[in-house]
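Hello Y.,

Per our agreement to keep a running log of every chain we model this quarter, I'm adding this entry. I've kept the format consistent with earlier entries: sequence first, then predicted structure.
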Amino acid sequence: MSDLNSILHHERPLKFLTAKILMRTGLCRFFTISLEHYMMKFYPTSLSRNKWINPNYIHVAEDPIFKDYMKNGDKVIDIGANIGPSVLYGSQLARHCFAIEPDPIAFQELKNNIELNDHLKTHITLSKYCISDSIGTAKLFVPAERLEDGGGGISSLLNYKHTKNFWEVQTTTIQQFIQSFSITDCNFIKIDIEGAEFDLIPSMSNYLKNQKPTLFIEIHLWTLKDPMKKLDRMFQTLDGYDHIYDAEKISKEVDIDYFTNIARSRNVIRVLLTDIAIPHF
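Predicted structure for the entry above:
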């Protein structure tokens, strides 16, 4: 019944129904989505589905406002690149984009999407590393019935679904990653890692304090039973930024208390932190 309601209330019900059928049968993989500035495969993910249904769909990490922070002479780091829409978007604005995705299935789909875009390939470096608070190996859990069902942007260092399915992945710190690639001019970092941000952000404290790149963070509150303590610890690390915005509705500056309050009623919050005020506010 819930599936039927979602179809009937969708603005494009027939195409939405078709997309669901294509995804469940795996036939979606035979389709390529042509967008204004790049192309991508129709993989069985909600993001791909939204792009296939409506080519004008804009993912939150593709907000035009980010043009103010991604400059031609600078570099972007995308931690949790998944299948690549934010990478393909960012690589058109910045000089170079480092796309980091440890999930093997998502990484291959990311690589395939990059290969579709010859004009952007030279501006992108791919990495299978898992950015963490330590160097070594870790379990990347896949909350699905089968390991091969990974790749949908749901893999996490947190075993929030108590699954037995996981990939063994190589981990490194943001400091080591930056040193390995001799990155000296990163001005924008996107982080979308399904709950692991609660431990990663505090481990980046020294780098963030010294370099102050603009940060876009997707905070997955639903992955923890009681996220407020870890959320408070995370924001203590981020209190050095001059400007904070709710990336869901960038209409005015907010403060840490604002996010603490809305965290009690949201499963996910998206935060933009920067030392550069958004020009038109």
